[in-house]
Amino acid sequence: MSISGKSLEAELTAPIAIATMPAKPRRETDSTDRVSALEAVVRYALYIAITLFLFIPFVMTVLSSFKTSAEVIAFPPTLLPTVWHPENYLHVLTQIDGFPRMVFNSFFITFAAVALNLFFDSLVGYAFARLEFPYKNTLFAIMIATMVIPGFVFIVPRYILMLNVHLVNTYGALLVLYFLQPAYILLMTQFFKSIPRDLEEAAIVDGMGWFGIFWKIILPLARPALLATGILTFAGMWNGFFDWLIYMQDATMFNIQLGLTTFRSVYQNQWDLIMAGSVLAILPILIVYIAGQRYFVRGIATTGMK
Amino acid sequence: MAVSVAPKAPAATAKGSRRSKRGGMAIAERRAGLLFVSPYLIYFLILQLGALIFAIWVSFHHYDLLAIDNPFVGLRNYARLTINEDFLIAMRNTTEYAVVVVVLQTVFALLLAVLLDSKIKGRNFFRSTWYTPSIASSVVISMIFLYVYHPTGLLNSILGLVGIHTTEAYLESTTWALPALMFLAIWTTAPTFMLMFLAALQDIPKEVYEAAAVDGASGVRKLFSITIPLLRPIIFLVVSLGIIGSFQVFDQMFIMTSGGPLKATLSVALLIYDNLFKDTGTVGVACAEAIVLGLIIFALTLISRRVIDTRIEY
User: Fold this and answer.
1) Residue B115 and residue A46: Cβ atoms within 8 Å?
2) Domains along chain B with CATH numbers
3) Which of A105, A219, B141, B216 is deepest in the core (most CB within 10 A)?
């Protein structure tokens, strides 16, 4: 569930904090600061040092994925592979038992969860933002309060529940746990509150039902928030590890992350496979991040109402 | 289960014709509202409230996943934690880990954000590359750091370049294993919080700094007397998310060290996992541990709120 501060809750809540930030035009940097050439050099050196610090491990992982296992941890070390071995990637796909199936499982659950969350998070979010119904404010307060309950409290009871309804070792376990996520309901609620009511009022006058209003009028306007929810759900599900470890027992049900951890025990010290597998596991999320960054930032900007 | 209750809302769509009557419309709206919110209601009742109550119930029982009869043992599962050596070790490791990680990742994230909140050329490039450690999964990060911390891995190779020749096996050393995992956590988590700080920084009006400049305040002075006080709400959020996350640290311990060497990296979360899946008859103990951990996290969040003296608004 958690890697350090990177817990599920953190993953879920972080975007909310950003999303609820007011988006104002950037202020100019104080023009009275005159920066000398020397200072500029020192400054850039600092920025580049930080970049190396945060990015070098990824560069070395990619380079290592083209080396032989022995060369990855050779002493003295090499920077570039002495001979490039792109076939390492082929070996991951062909020599690791069930690897293609793990890739399929990862994609399947990720896309299914994204679809479910786009629908349910926005549906519930719309009700909280716009509709009047009994105990609405209580329920909304409960939703926010329960978001900070540490996930480990739920592990045992949820596991026993899944055992009893025979969902252990099936996709169903993960889909039941993640068909909606309170953090993104909150994100959608914030967004819907920012849309002017005029359109809905016109639709009500035209005799449209609430689901019709939600489906035909509101959702098309909610593209930025939906993209943010979708991208964040994609990231969370693709990177999922702990729930798979708990609920999936057969290797045919593993995702790529859980599969990767077995490289260590089953394919001991096969550094070429571990490195190539890591690159494959990070690739889809990297693509989504690069492609979605623009929409994501726009989603944040649109959601950030004050 | 819950998936099948997808409200396709046939009831709601037919209600528009009541538009002439305000009362009828209000009823239609209430029905639609309850119907739309029902997926969350089910989620809350079963997966949150029900789960919480069941967790407390299990913690008062000697519970085994395969047993038919699970006898009531009162507070014994809790009482035994105070004399359970593994739990005490795990608690000490986890607290040490959390304190160091929360403090350093918050400071580092703020530093990164302040550096990005300037007019430097290539700002977007730096922001994107600096954020990369946060998009990789915990498993990938763990795999990368197995290579980094290998006796002839990346860290010792870099140290060799600057003249420090060592083949220390960091993850097999009782001295270095826990700090090594702390470093990994700070490295991978700080960029997430960096983005949150950055968004908050960009909201501070320029005029505030101009006034300070007129008064002749230095850059460092501005940081401590303007920026940080104004960032209090977001600092609280980052600290509490950090507390929640680091007290439940599991993945890298499980993947990289299995709690070793000699339990030097045994975390409470790892112990809960072992009690649930590896040992028998300790499911009640696992629940008690999880509830104690949850209460500690809750208390620390409240304390940090008091110390940072702020409120979060959603």
Assistant:
1) yes
2) 2-59 (no CATH), 82-308 (1.10.3720.10)
3) B141
